[in-house]
Amino acid sequence: MLTNPIRTLGLLAALGSVSCGGNQATTGADPYLGFVDSTGFDSKFVPGSSGYAPLVVSAAGQRVPVYPLGSVPAASFKTKVADLAPNLATVYELPADCEPGRVAPPAPGVFADDRQYPVYDRLPLSTTSTTNPTLPLVKVVKWNGASSAGCNAIKSHESLQAGAFSGEAEALAEGALPTLAFRPVIDTTANTVSNLTVTLGTTRLEWSATSPLGTIKPFPRGEGWFRGLQLAHVAGGELPVDAQGNVRVMDAVLVHPAWRDASRPATTSSMTSHGVLVLAAAPGTPGFSPIVAVREWFIPTTMATAVTPASFTSLCFDGCNPASTTAVDFSPTGAVRRQNNRETTPSTYLFIAENP
Amino acid sequence: MSRNHPSAPPMKTSNFLRGGRGLLLGMLAVALLPTVALAAGEQYGRVAGYIFDSEGNPLAEIPVTVSGPASPQPQTAVSGKDGRYEISTVLPGDGYTASVDTAGFKKQKVTELNVLLGSTTTADFALEVVGESDNSETITLVGKANPALDPDTARTGAIMSGDKAYNTPIFSQVQALPQLVAGVGPGNAPSTRGGLQRWGKQYVDGMETTDTTDGSISAPLNYLAIESAEITTGGFDAQYNSLGLVQNVITKSGSNRFTYDVMAILQPAWAGMGTTFASRQPAGVGGLLNNTTPQAETTFYSPFLNVGGPIVKDRLWFYASTQLNLSHRETPLDNENRPKDTETRIGRLKLTWQPSGSDRFSLALNLDRNTITNNLSNVNTALEAEQYIKRGGYFLIGNYDRTISDNARLELQTGVTWKDSNTGPMAGAFGIAQVDTNNSFFTQGGMQRISSTNEGNFLIERKVRYQFDPTLHWRLGSHNIKGGAQLGLMTGTERTGVYGGERFLNRGPVCDPTNLAVNCYQLQRFYNEDGVLADSVANAQTNDASVYTGGLFLQDRWNVNRQLTLTGGLRFDQGRLYGDNGKYLGRLQGFGPRLSASYDLLGDRSTLVKAYYGRSNDVGDLFIAQQGNPQLRILTATVQGSGNTPRTLPECELGVNATGCASAGGASGIQLMRGQKAPYVDEVQLGVHREVASGMVLGVDGTYRRYANLWVDEEINRVWDATGTRIVGYANGVAEDIVQQRTTNRAWRDYKGMDLWLQGRTGGFDVLASYTLGFNNGTVGSYFDGFGDNRQLQYLFEGPMPEDIRHNFKGSVQYEFGFGLQLGTRLQLRTGAPMWQNTAHPVGGGQRLYRSPRGTGYTLNTAGQPDVNNPNALVELRQPDQFILDLNARYDVGRALRLQEHRAELLLNVYNALNSQAAWNISDQYARSNSTFGQVLSRQSPLAAQLSVRFRN
Q1: Which residues of A touch B (CB under 8 A)?
Q2: Cα gap B212→B751, rounded to integer Å
Q3: Which of A285, A307, B231, B512 could pair with A303 as two cysteines, CB 3.0-4.6 Å apart?
Q4: CB B173, CB B220: distance < 8 Å
């Protein structure tokens, strides 16, 4: 009594086919894969153990908090848009008229279902390159004609480029420069206010939490996607560009306490004072830029010992008093720009986000 | 239409029905009592068939007699109008003969019938009219029917005789038998068809003896005392309520013949390969690669003594058995081989009394004691802090069978199981204990069996089950009906604490409490719910619980004709849960409809097509009820100060907020919610079973199971950020956790699988082999597994379950030569179970943080870390595939020595014959520093040989 092998195999195949299959449902949307892990980010974008710390700077006679997002040596930064753009992450801005409510987040509130977040093609990961350091800047490209599968259905530049949602990137007009924006990707999970010691190079800068300013708020935050992973970024806005095709840079002076001058011995009291960054323009005013060209200056020993870096609250550009203890002489002939009888160049480019 | 006593007066149907109504009313009355669902199991097999003439016309009123060596007395039944006869109280065994000797027809008998527990062995008779010259001739046919080809049920699984168990290398353990069967996972408390391990049901002589908290076997049995074991994996009759498997073990009863059975298992140290690594606790063995200690040894010795026979011939029989296990296993640690000694004593006595042909009583008492020393065998544990386990119990089972009439029979199974367990440090009570790395107290494993690897902890348990299960069988024409009630009470107590009441957590090496700067991190104190330091058994935290269970079932098996059998049934189960001081915690209940069909496709008993649908409900046990009680309270004081600052230990008080102080446990924070729907499983099954050789059946069964409404711990107070990694607030404004324990349909599992199996005996072969293709997905790995910790991250929990073994091939095959030699093998090849990469959640509290869907993880980047920002690195993670090959050989020396009815056997079992040391279990936990991700956690035990010497008659 032998069993027909063909029938047996056929039966096996039939039963096997109905036994197969997983549970994944296809909705037409890119899958949600969680959120970005910041631990591999360049150190500029990694929060401290308690979160992102504000930095107290001076500008226009006032002391204001900003969020520092790293610095690079001046030699590593190119101000020309044409030079910068090729090394920046591309962010695709997608049409706003997406169909709301069609793509449900995995849990309430995880992401919005009434607007489409932009899509990044790169994360600011750490790099050992000194010529092309990771920057908090991105190249913004508009994507036109995407057929919406629902708000936030598009979560990956790869599926976008592969044509899964149709449309195409908006082409640049001939001779036009790409649009750059200040959008540092940050740790989605971190706090934005905490007590941390902030340093720039080897100089310890003055930091603050709620005291003494009492006005610290989280920086303006935006959302985005990278390969199905949700990310957050500082919504710093578009970078202004001058007629020569350079991104606009704001001057600033890092005022060191006198004891930092290696030619002179430190005193116990002077060691307690921190360096202070004095900006050319206050946040929110014309002339402000998140890209800061930093020059350094030591308080002369001729000044009274009561004068500390925090005493200086503005930059003077013209007709300055070299002996002023409140305004740094930033005139073309002033001590900052003509140290050792020559025009100094910025030592560092610092990136800062406004405190709203 | 069976009768055990030929002289018993026939009882009219009307009388029976009147009595039946009374019984039914009685059962209905019982149903109104607070009542689960623990069914009485079957104790017999059946011999049934059809009698017809040479032209195929059914013949009524033809007596059929069945006799065999396993049955004390012959049994007779008479065929009905449709020609069908059925004898449903045949004790399982080999060598039965069914015979027909009636005037006008040639005598006929069918010999060599094999009767298995709970199964129908078919024997049909095509009678020939006696001719004038041949009226004395007897036609003898050899029974070909394989009970695995059972036309009366859609049940799947296997039935093994005691000898099959003996001939299979399974370490002499009854609880190891189910893993040989198709659709069952590995281990001694296996998952079945995508279910939880805890859902298994264990029966002895038809009475449930399942552990009241974890679903494992309650107590070990002397496996030479087993007559038969029925392992049912699906297609349950209405009398069973199980979301997993059912193992029903029928023990030997004794007969009019005196029997003895003496055996010794010998495994000296030289019979096994030395362990070159610790196979069980590698995380704790330290720098073993630099270990210069001798290789560890393993020895095992086990004598058995079983005797049975009549006390009063034809009326009263006994069967007594004893077994002693002495196991010595050394674990190689840094500087020593730590011995783990296990001693197990098992005793059993069963008395069977048959005062008349229609009544049978049996009473069985089972005793066991078990002690284990150095149970942790961990390098982090000092010898005096090593774990000692002393446990044991008994169960007492009473059975009463009464044949009420030709058409009705009553079975009553009742009894009690009792289990004590005492776990604590080897040195007994002692002062402050210390641990190195974690602050967990008792943890729950996959089966929710709580345990602790921390020294100083003690756990004292008592678990008791009472069971009362009457079942009535009756027959109306071609309808075989059975109904019954199953009433149970489970009650138990846990007492937990820490000797000395407090424990230091070290920061690195051992903390010096007199100088907090030296390696001291935290001091924990343990209190009972009254705020008294739980430093001794007298002050322990007590967790009392009880569960009343009740089940009612009714089933009709309708033999429509020779080819078609339909079975319909319905059961109702309810469990009522009580906590400390009798506090009512709620009830769980559910209906379980069953419907199945079996069709003899070709009408020649060679090919059966089967279909089944059924539902079972989990109406709770002590483990669930114990969740509703307060937990041990833990007060943690963290050492303050760092650098040059002097270290101080804050003075903490329970419930008082202070710097460096934290409280956990107690009555607050956990709520066992009332009004929950019972977890359940729906099962659909379709199969084709066909005899492919004489005595050998090939089957294909496709199964779909859906488990839903499973238990979860749901934290409801914390408000998470979008990523689920940061708490941004609390719903009630108070920084506390509030956990609701509930069932929810978001907690589910499903199983889609196909079994291809081969069972039977043909020629000299005895085969039980199968291949299973299975897909097991869902959202919860087990009850209270963390699914409800954090709703933001629940979307990651759907995926392959820990029991998702995609391909599973297993076989137990023996071949017997004609001169007393038998060779056998047991092999298993199974693909790896899913892993799920995880790390500690930043919020703590024991939560795990997953960054990818269940069953997946990220490949490691050049820094040795999972690159979770690269979805292209997302991969499916699986534990290694496993291959096991065991061999055995048995030779009956008695044949050579011409010992006649006595047998003297030598049995050699070789476990892991290839001496594979392959990795079995790999860590899926990563950390930024000191990550163990990818490290081997356990390996296959090395080759070991056991020689058994057995004398029996």
Answers
A1: 1-3, 8, 11-12, 15-16, 18-23, 32-37, 39-40, 106-107, 109-111, 123, 125, 156, 188-189, 191, 226-230
A2: 26
A3: A307
A4: yes
- Of the candidates B723, B799, B861, the beta carbon closest to that of A188 is on B723
Give the distance from residue A62's alpha carbon to the nearest chain B alpha carbon, in angstroms.
33
Average pLDDT, chain B: 84
- What is d(CA B950, CA B953) in angstroms, rounded to the nearest whole number? 10
pLDDT digits (tens, 9 = 90+) for B239-255: 999 999 999 998 988 88
Task: Give CA–CA dist A322/A324, Å, rounded.
Answer: 6
Taking contacts as CB-CB distances below 8 angstroms, the residues of chain B near A19 are 702, 752-754, 773-775
What ipTM does the predicted assembly reach?
0.74
Of A16, A107, A226, the CB nearest to B754: A16
CB pairs under 8 A between A and B: 98
Q: How far apart are the first and last CA of chain A?
A: 86
| B908 Cβ neighbours under 8 A, 6+ residues apart | B888, B889, B890, B945, B946, B947, B948
Task: Answer whether B795 sits within 8 Å of A107, measured CB to CB.
Answer: yes
Q: Which residues pair with B936 in a beta bridge?
A: B922
pLDDT the model gives residue A219:
64
pLDDT below 70 — which residues of chain A?
1-9, 11-27, 48-51, 53, 148, 190-219, 258-274, 340-342, 355-356
The structure's pTM equals 0.83
- Phi and psi for B912 in degrees, rounded to 5? 55, 60
Direct distance between the N- and C-terminal alpha carbons of chain B, in angstroms, rounded to an integer: 35
User: Which alpha helices (H) appear in B9-72, and where do they start and end?
Assistant: 13-31
What tokens were used for B472? 């009535």
Identify whether the C-beta of residue B858 lies closer than 8 Å to the C-beta of residue B868.
yes
Q: How distant is the Cα of B329 from the closest Cα of chain A, in angstroms?
A: 43
**Tens-digit pLDDT profile for residues A136-178:** 999 999 998 877 678 999 999 999 999 888 888 998 888 889 9
Q: Dihedral, CA atoms, B115, B121, B127, B130, nearest 10 degrees?
A: 0
Residue at token pair 């009580």:
B578
Measured between beta carbons, the chain A residues lying within 8 angstroms of B792 are 106-107, 110
Q: Count Cβ atoms within 10 A of the Cβ of residue A62 and give its class: 0-12 exposed, 13-18 middle, 19 or more buried.
A: exposed
Pull the structure tokens for residue B22: 């009374």
Residues of B in contact with A21 (CB under 8 A): 752, 775
Q: How far apart are CA B338 and CA A253, in angstroms?
A: 68
Closest residue in A to B749 (Cα) is A23
Residue B24: partners with Cβ closer than 8 Å, 6 or more residues away:
B483
Contacts of A33 in chain B (CB under 8 A): 852, 871, 874
Q: Are strands B607-617 and B584-600 parallel, antiparallel or unpaired?
A: antiparallel
Question: What is the tens place of the pLDDT at every residue in B310-319?
Answer: 999 888 999 9
Contact by Cβ (8 Å): B199, B782: no
Residue B14 has pLDDT above 70, yes or no: no
- pLDDT for B11: 33
Say whether B775 and A18 touch across the interface (CB within 8 A): no
A25 DSSP 8-state letter: P
Answer yes or no: is pLDDT of B205 > 50.
Answer: yes
CB atoms within 10 A of CB A344: 14
Bridge partners of residue B690, in order along the sequence: B607, B698
Report pLDDT digits (tens) over B654-675.
877 788 888 777 766 677 888 8
* DSSP letter for each residue of A126-190: ----SSS---SEEEEEEEE-PPPSSTT----HHHHHTTTT--EEPPPPTTPPPEEEE--EE-TT-
Nearest CA in chain A to B851: A34
